[in-house]
Amino acid sequence: MERYYSYSRYLRELFGTRVYRVTVDAGFTCPNRDGTKGRGGCIYCFSGSDYDPEKRRKSVREQIAQGIERVRRRYKAEKFLVYFQAYTNTYGPLEVLRSVYDTIREFPEVVGLIVGTRPDCVPDPVLELLHSYTSDYLVWVELGLESAHYRSLRWMNRGHGVSDFVDAVLRIKRFKALNLCVHVILGLPTEDREDMLETADFLAALKVDGVKIHPLHVIRGTELERIYLEERFRLLELDEYVELAVDFLERLPKETVIQRLTGEAPEELLVGPYWCTGRYKNRVIQLIRQELEERDTFQGAKYRF
Ligand code: SF4
Predict the structure, then answer these.
(1) Of 80, 61, 109, which is closest to residue 11 (Cα–Cα)?
(2) pLDDT digits (tens, 9 = 90+) for 59-105
(3) 93, CA 20 to 30 Å: which among 3, 52, 192, 304?
(4) Which residue lies with its CA nearest to atom 6 of ligand 1?
(5) Who has greater pLDDT, 40 or 293?
């Protein structure tokens, strides 16, 4: 029995087969880096969350074609979701956004569109544009929130408030066919366990469709690395994270799709904790599953709204 609603199960239920993601860097920037909202970006930001700078040099079409080919060869995959991941993928003129997203129409094997962005960067016309794809595609909007606590958002230099997030959620929910996934970081030094679980309750109360969680991890060259080396705050141990992740899952509704359970950075770029690399990914997920079993608990066990 699966004790949480995994992304792979959700996609299998929807499409009757395994569906794979192809990530794309469409060359956008971010209002929290170019001075519109802030400068320097979020303290943990490394290349807007994409570790492959080579992608940027290729067209979106090339990236999708090569991504599909790679994943098809590796997993014999037949259906794909295109994930606009790097930086803020709704930050641009409407016509530019449309022509970028429209590239997926050239690939009949693509069944879905995923757009990663910020809560303060989803005006209604952009949501209307995204909604226009829902007649042909599964569409997810991914919002970085990271924490429901303003002091943490400030510490991370997110450049938006909790209120921006609530506003975005309420407006996204008006478009019934759009799905909303929210990113959360556990282990921020500005928060204790109760604070982190309050973020889970906050998302549970808002009934977001999906959640991605990962532990705070420090990447070389970021502002977070500078602060970490100066202040030497504590990063989560693996067993602490496993417990917190299970506590977090217990508070979410059963229907929330769990799209990510840990963080992965390239080993050569990771300052810590050591277990946030691809090498440990399956181990972390396995430990979370084991903890759910041992506690005989499940996602939704402490959902209270
Ligand atoms: S919102 Fe995303 S791209 Fe922009 S600075 Fe923060 S992490 Fe980087």
Answers:
(1) 80
(2) 999 999 999 999 999 999 999 999 999 999 999 999 999 999 999 99
(3) 52
(4) 42
(5) 293
Fold of 7-294: Transcription Regulator spoIIAA (3.30.750)
Between CA 102 and CA 55 the distance in angstroms is: 18
Ligand 1 in reach of 33 Cβ (< 6 A): yes
Per-residue pLDDT, 56: 85
Which structure tokens are listed for 294?
């041992």
The ranges assigned to domains in the chain are 7-294
- 48 within 8 A of 30, measured Cβ to Cβ: yes
Q: For residue range 13-43, list pLDDT tens digits in order.
A: 999 999 999 999 999 999 999 999 998 999 9
Residue 16 CA, ligand 1 centroid: distance in Å: 34
Residue 47 pLDDT: 78
pTM of the model: 0.97
- Look at residues 188, 192, 292, 210 and name the one whose alpha carbon lies nearest to residue 247: 292
**Dist. CA 147 → ligand 1 center (Å):** 14
Ligand 1 in reach of 87 Cβ (< 6 A): yes
Instruction: Note the Cα 91 to chain centre separation in Å.
Output: 17
Mean pLDDT over 177-182 rounds to: 98
